[in-house]
Amino acid sequence: MPSFSALPPLSLYIHFPWCIEKCPYCDFNSHALKNELASDDYINCLILDLEKELPNIWGRSIQTIFMGGGTPSLFPAESIERLIQALRARLNFSPEIEITLEANPGTVDQSQFVGYRQAGINRLSMGIQSFNDSMLKKLGRIHNSQQAITAIEAAQQAGFTNYNLDLMFGLPGQTNEQMLQDLQTAIDLNPPHISHYQLTIEPNTLFAAKPPSVPDNDALWEMTQRAQHLFGQNQYGQYEVSAYSKLDGKTNYRCRHNLNYWQFGDYLGIGAGAHQKISDANHQQITRCFKQKHPQHYMQQVTQDSHRLDEKTLSDNDIAFEFMLNALRLTNGFDLQTYLQASGLEHSFIQNALEAAQQKQWLKVSDTHIKPTTLGLQYLNDVMSLFLPD
Length: 390
What we know:
This protein is of the alpha/beta class and 390 residues long. The protein is built from 15 helices and 17 strands. It has helices at 39-53, 77-90, 110-119, 133-138, 145-157, 176-188, 206-209, 217-233, 256-262, 295-301, 316-327, 336-343, 351-359, 374-378, 380-385; strands spanning 10-16, 18-19, 31-32, 61-69, 92-103, 123-129, 163-169, 193-198, 236-240, 243-246, 266-270, 275-280, 285-291, 308-313, 334-335, 363-365, 369-372. The strands form 4 sheets. Strands 9-10-8-7-6-5-4-1-11 form a 9-stranded mixed beta sheet, sandwiched between helices. Strands 12-13-14 form a 3-stranded antiparallel beta sheet, with no helix packed on it. Helix 6 runs parallel beside helix 8. The mean pLDDT is 94.
């Protein structure tokens, strides 16, 4: 049983389940919008969902909020403003709160960005994926490269100084040169943060049913190395397997919300298909729960007590594995004190697995800090497997 001396930081995740079209690689809880968007009704349901969860987090401050999807930018700025006002009335916001909204370049313009900023959004995450029109078509994206550039410039002109660009690599038929051209185009736009992640073929997607031809492992590793070199040349520091932030010596552009996940912090989850992790000091346990996935079912049942699809209290083995699954993604690893606080478990609980990883030169382990080596980051799935529950 975990033993908490202090609770970890708390975030809020809000899920918006609709998209214009479902991308063939996407395994998130997203649904093609077939009718008019019921924005007011859905915002009402989100507020009610939050009110049901409030007793689980009384007295705790919210450090970050992330509005993900789906496509949150389908919702008008007025709806987002009403939601943020409702959140402020019910939650204790940290004075330095980070509030991120995911935006699809095919659904936004400058006036909408201005509205989001006035509503209280202070960080954007923009799903670019590629600046190559051929690749965008293969990925089923609804925007083209020029629309992506226009959207980024519109966000800048609207006053956003903290934003992320999502890029994918290892795309169907993609060459090293095409990957580097995508990355250079992004860097030339001078974003403070870039997420550069490999396309993976996930179960229950169109790509899983009809797998495209993608680069092999050797080609992917070469892409990774060449991308990291280009990032370094342009003063972007890698702090997580897929995340790079601008190094300007003044402002920290690392995504605080994602860092809370990777450091095994707590988070509330509201919306269709959202899930949450909450540490309970009174009962010395960590609980996960999952919300109904289908938007209509969620909206119908949120007025009852059945909008939770499932709930689970984590075992000690689950806690240790989930902590390592997240924290080992960080290039600088984690302090042992972070592990003790977030997991509530003793150091001895992971000692054998740490020693095995150290012998394989996958981890650097000291009395106070644990960090993946370059080799460990290359074989990260193998490292994590050492911590799997028996």
